[in-house]
Amino acid sequence: PPPPPPHTHTQSLELNKTGSSYTLILANCLYAEKSYQFLEKFLHNTKTHYNAELEKVDFISYAEEAHIWINKWVEQHTNEKIKDLLAVGIVDSLTRLDLVNVTYFKGNWEKKFEGTATRELPFQLSKQNASKPVQLMHQKAKFPLAFIPDMKCQILEMPHVGKELSMLIILSNEIADNMTGWRSCDGKVVHKSFVEMNEEGTEAAAATAAVLVDCILPLASFVADHPFLFFIQHKPTHTIVFCDDTYQSP
Which parts of the sequence belong to the Serpin domain (predicted)? Predict the structure, then answer.
């Protein structure tokens, strides 16, 4: 069958339904220089597909005030977990449009970890045996697990309560010195994130993120004691709502 139209999954996300066992907030806003005109089709599409309102501001005369206003909006929509997304100078008198996207998620594991099993162990940071002591959680349970030989990695799925959202963890077989081959960033894109994982569940917030992974197989040992990537996926729509990594150490 032909692929679904663009934005289909974004539109079909049902957030914070009555009785939901998690909190998931996706918010978008367009901050536009008030003296500029934007195509009606562009404004219609961003409103229809992403519920992104157009907020007119005076970047030319009041760039610093706009910078503060945008940071406050991000802070409010991430339960105050993301502060000062835009550094001083990112927004200036030449700015014409600032597209802002935020994600906030909080949910409990379907299979919780016992706090008594958590202990301090070394987290390997590099091939040169550099490590950092961290609190590593532990449990024996069955989770979907995949081995990807071509990528030399494992992928573990850990469902949250209700099974609508899951965390996908990509763990390389070997420790990499950097993230070459995993992710690239270009242009003036600013990203900032907050993640807290404990025995009860996950709390995460971010400015922007999107990748897709989908692979599942049976039980084996999975030890995340070195850098890994992780994603939170909305299962009904296969939408990645959050992604981050531990390459800067937990």
Answer: 7-250
